[in-house]
Amino acid sequence: MDRLRVAGLLSSLLLAAGSGIAHAAESSDGPFVRNGLSVEGRVGPYWSPTGIGPDEPDFDYVRMAARLGWMLNDASQWSGALRGAFQAVFEVSGGPVFDGFGDWLVGPSAAIRYNFVQPGWRIVPYVQGGVGIVFSDAYQDKSQDVIGTNPEFSIQAAIGARFLLDEHWSLDVEAGYEHISNADIAERNAGMNALGGSTGFTYFFDPPSR
């Protein structure tokens, strides 16, 4: 009888320990916690035209971006397949035009990103959308009606994934869409639609203490 009691006690302790470990894993969000901050750097090419919208001349450019991220909630706030964290992303980007009219473009933008965070996963997919302002010398080429003034506005959308390397670093890949136009502020406003991608790294600062 004593052996049965000891065995039963040990089984109860093992089950309780296993439950605690599982709960700790479920509640561990890594860097995806409310008020967590991160910085990103990435670079990649974008091409236009894409077949979206009116026919337009070639306008191909490189986007080099620096981003500041701010987590808006704990990933553990939700459960299931859509478990994750919203993130505000503030960006300054710029780069050269390597094919088409103009030589450069630069500007700030802001976006909302949703990170799909599952316990134990090292790959974190995300989707995001945002708006921004674009400064460029492309409007000076009067032979085109795509970009007609300076600055112009941009609408952005992207999907991507983070590959968590450790508690602070991730390798990121992203595919994106960008629309640039001036909302009819200028007479020339055919607008530009570009598709492209980028890769880079994110550094996550230590999560804030609770």
Would you kindly provide a written description of the structure presented here, covering whatever features stand out?
This protein is mostly beta strands and 210 residues long. The chain has two domains: 30 residues; 174 residues, Porin (Beta Barrel), CATH 2.40.160. It has one helix and eight strands, in the order αββββββββ. The chain has an eight-stranded antiparallel β-barrel with strand order 1-2-3-4-5-6-7-8. A hairpin with a 3-residue loop joins β3 and β4.
Topology:
Elements (H helix, E strand, L loop, with lengths): L1 H26 L9 E11 L11 E13 L12 E17 L3 E13 L6 E14 L15 E13 L4 E13 L10 E13 L6
Antiparallel strand pairs: 1-2, 1-8, 2-3, 3-4, 4-5, 5-6, 6-7, 7-8
Concise structural overview:
With 210 residues, the protein is mostly beta strands.
Main attributes of the structure:
1 helix; 2 domains; mainly beta; 8 strands; 8-stranded antiparallel barrel; 210 residues; 12% helix; Porin
Summarize the biggest pleated sheet.
8 strands, antiparallel, barrel
Number of strands: 8
Task: Round the Cα radius of gyration to an integer and report it.
Answer: 23 Å
Q: What is the beta-strand fraction?
A: over 45%
Helix content range of the residues, please? Answer: 10-25%
Instruction: Give the uncertain stretches in residue-range form.
Output: 9-27
CATH top level of the largest domain is Mainly Beta
What general form does the structure show? Answer: elongated
